[in-house]
Design goal:
Pfam families: FilR1_middle, HVO_A0261_N. The chain is an alpha+beta fold. It has eleven helices and eleven strands. An eight-stranded mixed beta sheet has the order 4-10-9-8-5-6-7-11, sandwiched between helices. It has a three-stranded antiparallel beta sheet with strand order 1-3-2. Helix 3 crosses helix 4 and helix 7 runs parallel beside helix 8.
Length: about 260
């Protein structure tokens, strides 16, 4: 690509995005762009010249089309917009986390954000519970104990349809032993629960759920009065990122073979 800076290119793509989006469907004429964008011919001429000068579009036999570089830049631009939109919608979750909490911004692109509020304080938990009840296998990292989720896990395990690999913080393990020892012992004895514990290393809980048809991943965080938000996504990039995070968390954990 020729001329200008990255910032100038991003500004130009943002400014001319409606025209570029029209070209995503394939080559077209300036007259068609005038009609579809309800713009003047002079505006379209100027836009095409600007985009052509940085190799984003090209003209051939009176028709305008995206270049390969143009398509890649446009896809990257849309990916950035989606990620920023997701981060903004997930701010209710992020405000409860430290600034250095590990996150891949692309995790938020296209994500479903579920916030608790005064009328629906349990919405994040309900969302997680529904996913767990649909899953065949779940890998999870837990930083707090939520009775509703314990029920979802134990029901799936005892029904013989759910396999779980879970890393919990040492504090969560202490709570499970003290307050849910019977359920803990029974699920461990079933052979369908692999439980590990370690010191807290990530300031939020997360899961990777293999459901019929797709994999779904989510991140949850708690405030002083319970879970405040959940963010779930089924995009392969989001799944891959949380897969890697789970592997790093599990690497430092100790197996729990039997409940005391």
């Amino acid at each position: 690509m020729t001329g200008g800076t990255v910032d100038e290119l991003v500004r130009l793509v943002s400014q001319r995005r409606p025209l570029l989006d029209e070209l995503r469907a394939g080559e077209t004429t300036k007259a068609d762009l005038v009609a579809s964008l309800d713009a003047s011919r002079s505006t379209i001429d100027r836009a095409v010249r600007e985009l052509e000068s940085v190799d984003v579009v090209t003209r051939r036999h009176g028709r305008v089309q995206l270049t390969l570089a143009g398509r890649l830049v446009l896809d990257a631009y849309h990916g950035l917009r989606d990620a920023v939109d997701g981060v903004e919608r997930a701010n209710g979750l992020l405000t409860h986390l430290p600034a250095d909490a590990p996150f891949d911004p692309e995790f938020f692109a296209g994500a479903n954000v579920v916030n608790a509020d005064e009328t629906s304080p349990y919405r994040p938990v309900t969302t997680m519970e529904e996913i767990i009840r649909e899953a065949d296998t779940v890998r999870s990292y837990a930083t707090t104990v939520v009775p509703g989720l314990i029920d979802a896990f134990t029901d799936g395990i005892f029904d013989g349809r759910l396999d779980v690999e879970m890393v919990v913080t040492d504090a969560v393990l202490d709570t499970l032993v003290a307050e849910h020892s019977d359920a803990l012992r029974a699920t461990l004895d079933s052979g369908r629960l692999t439980l590990l514990s370690r010191e807290q290393c990530v300031p939020y809980g997360f899961f990777i759920a293999c459901c019929p048809g797709d994999d779904r991943v989510g991140v949850v965080t708690a405030g002083d009065h319970g879970y405040v938000a959940a963010v779930e996504n089924d995009h392969p990039d989001a799944v891959s990122w949380l897969d890697g995070l789970f592997e790093s968390v599990r690497a430092g954990a100790t197996p729990v073979d039997a409940a005391p």
